Amino acid sequence: QATLHTAPLLSCSIPVCDIGQMPLPALIEIVPFSDEQLDGFRKAKAKIAIPGSKSITNRAIVLAALGNGVTTLKGALWSEDTEAMVDCMLKMGFRVDVEPDKEVQANRLITVHGCNGTIPKAGTEEAPLELFVANAGTAARFLAAMVCLGKGVFRLSGVPRMHERPQQELVRALRALGYRIETPNDKLPALFFGEGAKPGKVTVSVDDSSQFASALLLSSAVGGWEVCTPEGSNPDELPYVEMTRRLVEVFPKAGGTFQIEPDASSASYFHAVNAIWPDIMPVDVLACQPPRSQGGTGWQIDAEFPRLAPRRGAAGSCFASKSISRKTDLGDSIMTAVVLAPLAPSPMSFTNLGVLRKQECERVEALRVELTKCKARVVETGDTLDVTPSSPADLGDARICTYHDHRMAMCFATLGLVISGVKIEDPSCVRKTVPSFFQILGAPPPQGLGVEIWECDVTTGQRLRKLVEPADLFASK
b/e map of 129-141 (b: 16 or more CB within 10 Å)? Predict the structure, then answer.
């Protein structure tokens, strides 16, 4: 029987708020650090625990469900995307137990009871089993491959933006393996006709999303699929695919315990604070993997962010790269780097950004438009953004549209720590990956940054009230 067990929330360093309480206000203002606050960080740094990796959590849930034992995922992220994955697992008949994490509020202990490569429940062509993935690209792609291993019909759907996001190459690859998929435009919503294992070799392009290859790899052992990327593909350009390959290799398929790494993309906002004030380094980012060159696992490309991030300061003190590629250098944290670039001592270019256009929003255009609102000098040419430095005093006074994109909200909130007048629309969108993000910003040091955050009138933009209660800063539904 599919069950979801949620125990009472335990105490942790930042008070815990149940998802389901009142959401964040529709418009908030981030107040820059004062000189007094910065002096405080010289004496005692903030010590920030980063929630688990969304990418690893949702991959691990799939592998655990397809395994043949009971697997407990420690440090698993609990957010909109991972909730969507768990909800779909429950609907497919898997038992999933969810309990609080004593260390990090946004994490959970997730125990998955594997069914040895079978999917307990399915629907019929007349009444398919409905699986709603919200706007979770990982759930949409990983489940598309996984349900083909079932015995019945499944209908995958999501929010309107998810129905616009690419799925065609994964649909093509699954059809090439012999599976029947019905969709008028090779996107969601779509019907998937599960027929069990169909061994075969398939090549899948990752031009639109590396998640296509990852989806096939996660289910490949059960499906008997030999998954290849196009000839000549450089593993250095496929960091998320390599993450999946390594995860498949080491995952405890017969059950056990698996530790989820903290999310390197989410850590980038706190590393960014150190890049803005490199002479102070206000934040100790706890428990995150270092880059592979420094002994890290190398699973998350965004572990490279502290090395590559644009640093504010004199030109002679800046050792960040002048050009950063989305293909070879950083993953989603390249958005954080773009938003920091106006503070860098010299011009910077961000290249190979095409995949950003097909994610939660059209991120390349969104970054250019919102940075321009902040009076930054940004030029978009093809899939490249060129950013010219500005003085922080010349930047700010902008109402940021987040496009319901969690990373837009978190990037520009971070920029608001150094430039004045940054207001964030729809801040609750951070629920997709870090529902406690604004709680962490607002909590007093050392557990948080002690940032002053105000609710603002959505029409006039005027400040209404200072948000100090943890419940007011949690991104609930």
Answer: bebbbbbbbbbbb
Sign of the alpha-carbon torsion through 60, 63, 66, 71: negative
Other C-beta atoms closer than 10 Å to the C-beta of 234 total 9
Q: Are 336 and 326 in contact (CB under 8 A)?
A: no
Report the run of H or E that residue 129 belongs to, with start and end: strand 129-132
How much is the mean pLDDT over the chain? 92
Please classify residue 184 by burial: count the beta carbons closer than 10 Å to its beta carbon, then call 0-12 exposed, 13-18 middle and 19+ buried. Answer: exposed
Q: How many CA atoms lie within 13 A of 452 on its CB side?
A: 13
pLDDT of residue 191 exceeding 90, the answer is: yes
Helical packing angle, 80-91 and 54-66, nearest 10°: 10
Per residue in 43-101, pLDDT (tens digit) is: 999 999 999 999 999 999 999 999 999 999 999 999 999 999 999 999 999 999 999 99
Question: Is the pTM of the predicted complex or chain greater than 0.85?
Answer: yes
Helix 211-223 and helix 54-66, axial crossing angle in degrees, nearest 10: 20
Q: How far is residue 182's CA from residue 25's CA, in Å, rounded to a whole number?
A: 40
Cα–Cα distance measured from residue 313 to residue 371, given in angstroms and rounded to the nearest whole number? 20
Assess whether pLDDT exceeds 80 at residue 265: yes
pLDDT of residue 291: 81
Residue with tokens 């616009």: 164
Order the strands of the 348-351 sheet from edge to edge. Answer: 323-325, 348-351, 384-388, 377-381
197-232 pLDDT, tens per residue? 999 999 999 989 999 999 999 999 999 999 999 987
Active site residue 332: yes
* pLDDT of amino acid 236: 61
Return d(Cα 33, Cα 153) in angstroms, integer. Answer: 54
Rounded to 10 deg, the angle between the 54-66 and 239-250 helix axes is 40
Catalytic residue among 81, 263, 329, 332, which? 332
Measured CA distances, 375 to 101, 167, 369, 394 (Å): 42, 36, 10, 7
Taking residue 193's Cβ as centre, other Cβ atoms within 10 Å add up to 18
